[in-house]
Structure of Methyltransferase domain-containing protein:
Amino acid sequence: MSTVSRNFNPSISQSFYITRSLLIKNLVKHFDKLHGRMLDFGCGSKPYKSLINVKEYIGVDFEGQGHSHVNEQIDVFYDGKTIPLESNSFDSVLSTEVFEHVFNLEDMLSELHRVMKPGAVMLVTCPFLIAEHEAPNDCNRYTSFGIKNLMKQNGFEIVHYEKLGTSVQAQMQIFMSYIDSSVLSKLNFFKPVRKLVTSFTFSVLNLWCMFVNWALPKRQDAFLNHIMICQKP
Protein backbone atom coordinates (compact mmCIF):
# COMPACT_ATOMS: atom_id res chain seq x y z
CA MET A 1 0.00 0.00 0.00
CA SER A 2 3.04 2.23 -0.35
CA THR A 3 1.47 3.83 -3.45
CA VAL A 4 -1.32 5.36 -1.31
CA SER A 5 -0.50 8.84 0.01
CA ARG A 6 0.20 9.38 3.72
CA ASN A 7 -3.05 11.33 4.02
CA PHE A 8 -4.96 8.10 3.39
CA ASN A 9 -2.40 5.59 4.68
CA PRO A 10 -0.93 7.47 7.65
CA SER A 11 1.92 6.64 9.98
CA ILE A 12 1.52 6.27 13.73
CA SER A 13 2.93 9.79 14.16
CA GLN A 14 -0.13 11.41 12.57
CA SER A 15 -3.22 12.63 14.41
CA PHE A 16 -5.70 10.81 12.16
CA TYR A 17 -3.86 7.48 12.26
CA ILE A 18 -6.66 5.56 14.00
CA THR A 19 -9.45 6.51 11.61
CA ARG A 20 -7.49 6.32 8.37
CA SER A 21 -5.62 3.10 9.19
CA LEU A 22 -8.90 1.36 10.05
CA LEU A 23 -10.43 2.64 6.81
CA ILE A 24 -7.70 1.45 4.47
CA LYS A 25 -7.29 -1.88 6.28
CA ASN A 26 -10.99 -2.67 5.90
CA LEU A 27 -11.45 -1.21 2.43
CA VAL A 28 -8.67 -3.41 1.08
CA LYS A 29 -10.57 -6.48 2.30
CA HIS A 30 -13.46 -5.61 -0.03
CA PHE A 31 -11.79 -4.08 -3.09
CA ASP A 32 -12.05 -7.42 -4.89
CA LYS A 33 -15.84 -6.92 -4.94
CA LEU A 34 -15.34 -3.97 -7.30
CA HIS A 35 -15.19 -5.00 -10.93
CA GLY A 36 -15.96 -4.12 -14.53
CA ARG A 37 -16.88 -0.50 -15.15
CA MET A 38 -16.55 1.29 -11.80
CA LEU A 39 -17.74 4.69 -10.62
CA ASP A 40 -15.82 6.39 -7.80
CA PHE A 41 -18.35 8.87 -6.40
CA GLY A 42 -16.67 11.69 -4.49
CA CYS A 43 -13.38 10.56 -6.00
CA GLY A 44 -11.18 13.56 -5.16
CA SER A 45 -7.61 12.50 -5.91
CA LYS A 46 -8.64 8.83 -6.36
CA PRO A 47 -6.42 7.83 -3.42
CA TYR A 48 -7.16 4.09 -3.64
CA LYS A 49 -7.03 3.71 -7.42
CA SER A 50 -3.70 1.86 -7.38
CA LEU A 51 -5.25 -0.83 -5.15
CA ILE A 52 -8.31 -1.49 -7.33
CA ASN A 53 -8.32 -3.71 -10.41
CA VAL A 54 -11.26 -2.81 -12.66
CA LYS A 55 -11.83 -2.58 -16.40
CA GLU A 56 -12.70 1.14 -16.34
CA TYR A 57 -12.36 3.65 -13.49
CA ILE A 58 -14.47 6.82 -13.69
CA GLY A 59 -14.29 9.49 -10.99
CA VAL A 60 -17.19 11.82 -10.18
CA ASP A 61 -17.13 14.67 -7.69
CA PHE A 62 -19.19 17.67 -6.67
CA GLU A 63 -17.82 21.11 -7.40
CA GLY A 64 -18.89 23.40 -4.60
CA GLN A 65 -17.90 25.61 -1.72
CA GLY A 66 -15.83 24.14 1.10
CA HIS A 67 -13.50 21.85 -0.84
CA SER A 68 -10.74 22.63 -3.31
CA HIS A 69 -10.29 20.29 -6.27
CA VAL A 70 -6.75 21.41 -7.03
CA ASN A 71 -4.56 18.45 -8.06
CA GLU A 72 -7.52 16.06 -8.02
CA GLN A 73 -8.45 13.55 -10.72
CA ILE A 74 -12.09 14.18 -11.52
CA ASP A 75 -13.51 12.89 -14.80
CA VAL A 76 -17.10 14.14 -14.40
CA PHE A 77 -18.69 16.76 -12.14
CA TYR A 78 -22.00 16.18 -10.31
CA ASP A 79 -24.22 19.27 -10.12
CA GLY A 80 -26.11 18.08 -7.04
CA LYS A 81 -29.08 16.90 -9.08
CA THR A 82 -28.05 14.60 -11.92
CA ILE A 83 -24.99 12.43 -12.49
CA PRO A 84 -24.31 13.11 -16.21
CA LEU A 85 -23.83 9.44 -17.09
CA GLU A 86 -26.10 6.86 -18.68
CA SER A 87 -28.49 4.64 -16.72
CA ASN A 88 -27.67 0.99 -15.93
CA SER A 89 -24.05 1.44 -17.01
CA PHE A 90 -21.84 0.62 -14.00
CA ASP A 91 -20.93 -2.77 -12.54
CA SER A 92 -19.69 -1.32 -9.25
CA VAL A 93 -19.49 1.90 -7.25
CA LEU A 94 -17.05 3.13 -4.61
CA SER A 95 -17.91 6.01 -2.29
CA THR A 96 -15.65 6.70 0.69
CA GLU A 97 -16.31 9.42 3.27
CA VAL A 98 -18.77 11.28 1.03
CA PHE A 99 -22.28 10.78 2.42
CA GLU A 100 -21.71 13.23 5.29
CA HIS A 101 -21.17 16.03 2.75
CA VAL A 102 -24.40 15.64 0.77
CA PHE A 103 -27.44 17.63 1.90
CA ASN A 104 -29.84 15.92 -0.52
CA LEU A 105 -28.51 12.43 0.12
CA GLU A 106 -31.67 10.59 -0.95
CA ASP A 107 -31.58 12.34 -4.34
CA MET A 108 -27.93 11.34 -4.72
CA LEU A 109 -28.69 7.72 -3.80
CA SER A 110 -31.45 7.70 -6.39
CA GLU A 111 -28.94 8.82 -9.01
CA LEU A 112 -26.39 6.20 -7.97
CA HIS A 113 -29.12 3.56 -8.13
CA ARG A 114 -30.03 4.77 -11.63
CA VAL A 115 -26.53 4.50 -13.10
CA MET A 116 -25.86 1.07 -11.56
CA LYS A 117 -26.67 -2.08 -13.49
CA PRO A 118 -29.01 -4.62 -11.87
CA GLY A 119 -26.83 -6.75 -9.61
CA ALA A 120 -24.15 -4.05 -9.33
CA VAL A 121 -22.48 -3.54 -5.95
CA MET A 122 -21.53 -0.38 -4.06
CA LEU A 123 -18.79 -0.20 -1.42
CA VAL A 124 -19.45 2.67 1.00
CA THR A 125 -17.78 4.18 4.04
CA CYS A 126 -19.02 7.16 6.03
CA PRO A 127 -18.26 8.50 9.51
CA PHE A 128 -20.24 8.25 12.71
CA LEU A 129 -17.95 10.19 15.09
CA ILE A 130 -15.83 12.91 13.52
CA ALA A 131 -15.36 16.64 13.93
CA GLU A 132 -17.15 18.98 11.55
CA HIS A 133 -15.02 19.56 8.46
CA GLU A 134 -15.08 21.03 4.94
CA ALA A 135 -17.55 23.69 6.07
CA PRO A 136 -20.24 24.41 5.08
CA ASN A 137 -20.65 21.05 3.33
CA ASP A 138 -20.83 18.78 6.36
CA CYS A 139 -24.37 17.82 7.24
CA ASN A 140 -24.94 14.13 8.04
CA ARG A 141 -24.09 11.57 10.71
CA TYR A 142 -25.93 8.25 10.90
CA THR A 143 -26.29 5.51 13.48
CA SER A 144 -25.95 1.93 12.26
CA PHE A 145 -29.74 1.64 12.22
CA GLY A 146 -30.19 4.91 10.36
CA ILE A 147 -27.71 4.25 7.55
CA LYS A 148 -28.99 0.72 6.89
CA ASN A 149 -32.58 1.93 6.80
CA LEU A 150 -31.62 4.77 4.46
CA MET A 151 -30.03 2.38 1.97
CA LYS A 152 -32.97 -0.02 2.06
CA GLN A 153 -35.48 2.82 1.61
CA ASN A 154 -33.60 3.85 -1.53
CA GLY A 155 -33.70 0.46 -3.21
CA PHE A 156 -30.46 -1.19 -2.06
CA GLU A 157 -29.92 -4.53 -0.38
CA ILE A 158 -27.32 -4.66 2.42
CA VAL A 159 -24.84 -7.43 1.60
CA HIS A 160 -22.34 -6.60 4.35
CA TYR A 161 -22.27 -4.06 7.19
CA GLU A 162 -19.63 -3.41 9.84
CA LYS A 163 -18.72 -0.74 12.38
CA LEU A 164 -15.09 0.40 12.37
CA GLY A 165 -13.41 1.32 15.64
CA THR A 166 -14.23 0.75 19.28
CA SER A 167 -15.52 3.26 21.82
CA VAL A 168 -11.96 3.70 23.12
CA GLN A 169 -10.60 4.39 19.64
CA ALA A 170 -13.42 6.79 18.81
CA GLN A 171 -12.94 8.90 21.93
CA MET A 172 -9.16 8.90 21.56
CA GLN A 173 -9.43 9.97 17.91
CA ILE A 174 -11.64 12.91 18.86
CA PHE A 175 -9.16 13.91 21.57
CA MET A 176 -6.22 13.78 19.14
CA SER A 177 -8.12 15.81 16.56
CA TYR A 178 -8.65 18.45 19.24
CA ILE A 179 -4.97 18.44 20.24
CA ASP A 180 -3.96 18.76 16.58
CA SER A 181 -6.34 21.57 15.62
CA SER A 182 -6.56 23.55 18.86
CA VAL A 183 -3.19 23.09 20.57
CA LEU A 184 -0.28 22.01 18.37
CA SER A 185 -1.43 23.96 15.33
CA LYS A 186 -1.23 27.15 17.41
CA LEU A 187 2.43 26.70 18.27
CA ASN A 188 4.53 29.15 16.30
CA PHE A 189 8.05 28.00 17.08
CA PHE A 190 10.68 26.86 14.59
CA LYS A 191 8.97 24.56 12.05
CA PRO A 192 11.31 21.51 12.34
CA VAL A 193 10.91 21.60 16.14
CA ARG A 194 7.14 21.84 15.82
CA LYS A 195 7.14 18.87 13.45
CA LEU A 196 9.23 16.84 15.89
CA VAL A 197 6.96 17.70 18.83
CA THR A 198 3.85 16.85 16.78
CA SER A 199 5.24 13.49 15.62
CA PHE A 200 6.34 12.55 19.14
CA THR A 201 3.01 13.59 20.69
CA PHE A 202 0.85 11.57 18.31
CA SER A 203 3.15 8.56 18.34
CA VAL A 204 2.80 8.40 22.13
CA LEU A 205 -0.97 8.99 22.06
CA ASN A 206 -1.54 6.37 19.35
CA LEU A 207 0.54 3.80 21.23
CA TRP A 208 -1.35 4.60 24.44
CA CYS A 209 -4.64 4.12 22.58
CA MET A 210 -3.48 0.72 21.32
CA PHE A 211 -2.68 -0.38 24.86
CA VAL A 212 -5.92 0.91 26.40
CA ASN A 213 -7.98 -0.55 23.56
CA TRP A 214 -6.29 -3.92 24.12
CA ALA A 215 -6.70 -3.80 27.91
CA LEU A 216 -10.32 -2.69 28.21
CA PRO A 217 -13.52 -4.48 27.15
CA LYS A 218 -14.49 -3.82 23.54
CA ARG A 219 -17.65 -1.81 22.89
CA GLN A 220 -18.97 -0.28 19.68
CA ASP A 221 -21.90 1.85 20.81
CA ALA A 222 -19.54 4.70 19.94
CA PHE A 223 -17.43 4.04 16.85
CA LEU A 224 -15.66 5.85 14.04
CA ASN A 225 -16.98 4.69 10.67
CA HIS A 226 -19.51 2.56 8.83
CA ILE A 227 -18.39 0.27 6.03
CA MET A 228 -20.94 -1.58 3.94
CA ILE A 229 -21.50 -3.33 0.66
CA CYS A 230 -24.86 -2.68 -0.96
CA GLN A 231 -26.37 -4.20 -4.08
CA LYS A 232 -28.93 -3.04 -6.60
CA PRO A 233 -31.39 -5.93 -7.01
Observations:
- The beta strands are 37-41, 56-62, 76-78, 90-96, 116-127, 157-164, 225-231.
- The first strand starts at residue 37 and ends at 41.
